[in-house]
Amino acid sequence: MAEQTGQEKTEQPTGKRLEDARQKGQVPRSKELTTVMVLIASAIALFFMGGSLVSDMAAVMNESFTLTQKQIFDPMAMVHHFMHMIEIISFDLGMFLAITVLAALAAPALIGGWNFSTQAMAFKPEKMDPIKGLKRVFGPQGLAELGKALGKFILIGAISTAILWGIRDQLLTLGSQEVNVAMTDLGYLTLWVFLAITASLILIALIDVPFQLWNHNRQLRMTKQEVKDEMKQTDGNPEVKGRIRRMQIQMSQQRMMQDIPSADVVITNPTHYAVALRYDQARPGAPIVVAKGADLISQQIRLVAQHNEVPILAAPPLTRAVYYSTEIGEEIPSGLYIAVAQVLAFVFQLRRYRKQGGKKPHLNPEDLPIPEEFRRD
Asked: NCBIfam families annotated for this entry (predicted)?
C-alpha cells in the first residue's frame, strides 16, 4: 500500500494492526535471549546438580560394565538391568531437562508472549519460494543476523581465549594429580568456563532484544492512509454512518408525526418549539410527550395537528420547560403536573364548550405555575 501510494510509513501501528500480526504469528522474538536463558539455566542446573549427575553417570557406567554371565545370556535380566539404569539417572536428568525446557518456554514470553496461532502454523507455499528466501538471506534481516553471528564468534572466541590463558597453569597441573582428583577439578573448571562464556552472551542479548522490538515495530508501521482505512473498517465509514443516522432520524420523525393525531393538545413557543401531549384517563400515570421539535419540526407538528384538529395552545414558558425536561414517550416530571393539568383541563372544557355551549373557558398561559428549575429562557 505504501509503495503504491508513495506514502512513508510514519505512523505507529494501531492495536488492531498489532493484534492481526499476532494472529498471523508475527510477534517480536529474540533467538539470542532464548539461547542465553537456556544456557544460563543449564549452567545453574549443572552448578547445583552436577555432582549428583556425575555420580549417577558413574554408577550407570560401573554397573553397565560389571555384568555377570547370567545377566549377559538372560534377555529378561538385561531388560531389568536397563530399567534399573534408567531409575538411577531419571530423576536428576529429568530435573535438568525440565529446567532447560522451562527456560526455553519463558524466554519468548518476556518480549512477545506465547503465541499459538493456527495461521502461523499453517503451510504457506510462498515460504518455499527460493527467490524470496534469497531476499531474506541477503536483505536487512539477513545482514543483521550475519552481524550477530560474527559478533558472537568474536566475543566468545576472545573471552574463551582469555579464560583458557588465565587457567593455563591449572590445566597443566591436572596431569600430575590422581585421576579422581583431576577429573573433579576438570569438571569444576569446565563448569566455570561454561558459566563465564554463557554470561558473555548476555551482552549480545541486551543488544538484540531492543533491536528485535524496534524492528518488529518498524515492520508494522503504517501510512496515514492505512490508518484512515483501518478507522473506516473499525468504526465504519463516516458518510455511511451519517446516512444511517439521518435515516434513523427520518424514521423516528415519521413515527412521531403518526402519533400526533392521538395527542390531546399541542403547546407551542409559539414559533420555535412545539410539544404534543397526551393523557390517557383510563390508565394511571402522568401525561406523556408524543412528539416534540424545534423550528422546522415544530412547524410540521403544528401542520399535522391542524390537519387532525388537535388543539394548539401558545404557552411559551411551559413549552420550553417540557421540551428541555422530557423526551418523546416519557411522562412529564412531577414539577410540571399542575401546569399541564391546567392546560388539559382548559382543553377538555374548550372541547365541551364547542359541543354544548355555555360559558367559554379562559386560560392565561403566562400564569401557569412552573418551578424555577424547569424554566428556560
From this structure: flhB (TIGR00328)
